[in-house]
Amino acid sequence: MTETSPRFTFDSPSADASEQETGTVFRPRFDANGLIPCVTIDAKRHDVLMVAWMNRDALSRTLETGEAWYWSRSRAELWHKGETSGQIQKVVSLVVDCDQDTLVLAVNVLGDGGCCHTGRRSCFYRSVDIDGPGRTRLVYLPAAPS
Amino acid sequence: MTETSPRFTFDSPSADASEQETGTVFRPRFDANGLIPCVTIDAKRHDVLMVAWMNRDALSRTLETGEAWYWSRSRAELWHKGETSGQIQKVVSLVVDCDQDTLVLAVNVLGDGGCCHTGRRSCFYRSVDIDGPGRTRLVYLPAAPS
Asked: What is the dihedral of CA B102, A61, A71, B35, to 10 degrees?
């Protein structure tokens, strides 16, 4: 990743599944809202930190700057992760799935190492446990150090 | 997880963000299409195998049976992963994110250990690399043994 790249444009998905699945051209498939889901993992520990969405602009800026940009659906705006919190996500790698409709972004988190707006390191801190016939409850996972 | 649980029903998301984010009641937030994204990871290696979608029925069946069920958007039908391929995903844990609109499912894969319909262990086998100013290319990752 470099901080000097200009804006990226992206090829359209191919109607040929083989090209989409085995080709070496990046053809991200944005959904009807122009968004693609991004699973963000810790580059060192490999655990899932968050799942967010990117539009074309956020994806381009992520590649341009080497820092994670998302599209905030709740605020309907571009979101440079960590811009206010200091929890900047430095991109280590970006991987796409078979049909190119999902991304996995591996990052190193700056600042205090947090990721979740609740202050936690990861957004995934509660397990869904079975609590009886047809019943669930959430159980907090042990907190990992930042 | 048990194979004898009856059908699960799910509470609605709370309008109270604190309840949604810190409560111990599972309140999955299905989207406008009745779906919630599920990041499926390998329970032992912790890498991302696939990202798929569940509706209420798929989520209930996953909890009922201890095996992963999804909603196939392309086929518009319930999808018991591995039913034809033998690549059944045995559930080890299910974790929900802060606002309860995304799931992480940790599984052990049966059969030949594959997950992707292309025959690979994971759907994420190509890295998005920068190939010059504003240009990308996909680069195959080294194949991990199944």
From this structure: -40
**What tens digit of pLDDT does each residue of A56-106 get?**
999 999 999 999 999 999 999 999 999 999 999 999 999 999 999 999 999
Query: Which pTM does this prediction carry?
Result: 0.94
Give A132→chain B minimum CA distance, Å.
Answer: 8
Q: Do B2 and A118 touch (CB under 8 A)?
A: no
Does B3 have pLDDT greater than 80? no
For B26-60, how does the pLDDT look when each residue is reduced to its tens digit (9 = 90+)?
999 999 999 999 999 999 999 999 999 999 999 99
User: C-alpha angle with apex A55: A53 to A61, nearest 5 degrees?
Assistant: 100
Instruction: Look at residue A28 and give its three-state secondary structure.
Output: coil
Residue in A7, A48, A96 nearest the CB of B104: A48
Answer whether B118 sits within 8 Å of A97, measured CB to CB: no
Residue B118 in contact with residue B129, Cβ under 8 Å?
no
User: Would the CB atoms of B124 and A97 count as touching at under 8 Å?
Assistant: yes
User: Tokens representing A92?
Assistant: 């280590």
ipTM: 0.94
Size of interface A-B (CB pairs under 8 A): 134
Write out chain A residues lying below 8 Å of B134, CB-based: 5-9
Residue in B closest to A52 by C-alpha: B102
Helices (H) and strands (E) in chain B, counts: 2, 8
